[in-house]
Amino acid sequence: MKQYRITTLNEFIIRRQANIPYAKGELSRLLHHIGIAAKVVNKKVNKAGLVDVLGAAGSENIQGEIQQKLDVFADMQFTTALKDSGECCGIASEENQEIITFDDDLANDGKYIVTMDPLDGSSNIDVNVSIGTIFSIYKRLSPRGHKAEERDFLQPGNRQIAAGYVVYGSSTMLVYTTGRGVNGFTLDPSIGEFCLSHPDIQTPQDGKIYSINEGNYANFPEGVKRYVDYCKEKDAATQRPKKSRYIGSLVADFHRNLLKGGIFMYPPTESSPSGKLRLIYECNPIGFLAEQANAIASDGRNRILDIEPQNLHQRVPFYTGSRNMVRRAERFLQETSARVGKNSG
Ligand code: AHM
Ligand code: MG
């Protein structure tokens, strides 16, 4: 019988660390703790229909959205895991208005801060659709030995040390990068370990899928409308239009396009003039992963990772995925805005 060699997430992290001279294992420990929290949240997500975890927790988060019980649980679980790691001096979470500083001797000595969206796509929980956790790791700017400060969290995405997501889907996967490619690990429930299943993920330069909430079409900028119309035209090579696929969970929509090729867009709309997605919690980590897989991420004009964050909950328009698709969408946007500028001038 053929023997398969399994590489667990922890083994992989340790092996990677060994390739970096002088690495002390701090980042490895942090990633290890994120992996543990992901398993705990996964267990709860799997039981969502069975125990009393469904539905709203009765509180609202900073964005004025009703927090789901699982949001609260995931937020707590990741926060505790990061604090326990001893490597992280503070976190910023989509669920909290302010940063959380851990502020004890061990944590204050930590080199890293973490930003996270503990449960992305949570409006999908009650209907059994994939949801996810997104995280980013940065080196702090403030001196070690002190409390974390807000400036530690307002760094541009190009300063990320690591980023990743967990997708709680038909199987649970953890996908992450430390700036040396993107690797995906599938949770094997029989042994309770994330196992390397998708080494060195590369996104095709072109794809057949476009993902956008087309219900907002009437409010899209002209260039986005034109790009969506273009996606519906027959492609010269395939003689078919592109496929429209939209789950409504960024992690799940991005994960599919990362593997298969495609474009994900969340443009500005009337109700969300800067787009809906958050730079720090969603766009930066996803942008880092995209670039590491040879895809790209932009706000329609600028590289997402080069945007200087102004505040913790800042939103930006978001276009990410296969290189040629995103570049084409950007051209549609820029041509249209140039034309509008000329007409109004
Ligand atoms: P959330 O972080 O509150 O869950 O919101 C973000 C989610 C993304 O996962 C998804 O891409 C988007 O909101 C869907 O928004 P819409 O329902 O407007 O299409
Ligand atoms: Mg989110």
Describe the protein's topology.
Layout: H1 9-18, H2 26-46, E1 56-60, E2 66-68, H3 69-85, E3 88-93, E4 100-101, H4 105-108, E5 112-120, E6 131-139, E7 160-168, E8 172-177, E9 182-188, E10 193-198, E11 209-211, H5 222-232, E12 243-244, H6 250-260, E13 263-266, H7 279-292, E14 296-298, E15 318-321, H8 323-344
Parallel strand pairs: 3-5, 11-12, 11-13
Antiparallel strand pairs: 1-2, 3-4, 5-6, 6-7, 7-8, 8-9, 9-10, 13-15, 14-15
The chain binds 2,5-anhydro-1,6-di-O-phosphono-D-mannitol and magnesium ion.
What would you note in describing this structure?
- This protein is α+β, with helices and mostly antiparallel strands and 345 residues long.
- It folds into two domains: 9-198, Fructose-1,6-Bisphosphatase, Chain A, domain 1; 209-344, 3-Layer(aba) Sandwich (D-Maltodextrin-Binding Protein, domain 2).
- Helices cover 32% and strands 23% of the residues.
- The protein has eight helices and 15 strands.
- The strands form three sheets. The protein has an eight-stranded mixed β-sheet, sandwiched between helices. Strands 12-11-13-15-14 form a five-stranded mixed β-sheet, with helices on both faces.
- Helix 2 (26-46) packs antiparallel against helix 3.
- The protein is globular, with a radius of gyration of 20 Å.
- 47% of the residues are buried.
- The mean pLDDT is 91.
- Bound molecules: 2,5-anhydro-1,6-di-O-phosphono-D-mannitol and magnesium ion.
- The site of 2,5-anhydro-1,6-di-O-phosphono-D-mannitol has 11 residues, from strand 5.
User: How many DSSP-defined strands?
Assistant: 15
Strand order of the largest sheet: 4-3-5-6-7-8-9-10
Roughly how many Å apart are the termini? 74 Å
Compute the number of helices.
8
Overall number of domains:
2
Low-confidence segments: none
The name of the CATH superfamily of the largest domain reads Fructose-1,6-Bisphosphatase, subunit A, domain 1
Helix and strand string, N-terminal first? HHEEHEEHEEEEEEEHEHEHEEH
- Counting helices, strands and paired strands, the structural category is alpha+beta
How large is the radius of gyration?
A: 20 Å
The CATH topology of the largest domain is given as Fructose-1,6-Bisphosphatase, Chain A, domain 1
Main sheet record: 8 strands, mixed
The CATH architecture of the largest domain comes to 2-Layer Sandwich
Helicity level: 25-40%
In CATH's first tier, which class of the largest domain applies? Alpha Beta
Net shape:
globular
> What small molecules does the structure contain?
2,5-anhydro-1,6-di-O-phosphono-D-mannitol, magnesium ion
What proportion of the residues form beta strands (DSSP E)? 15-25%
Mean pLDDT across all residues, rounded? 91
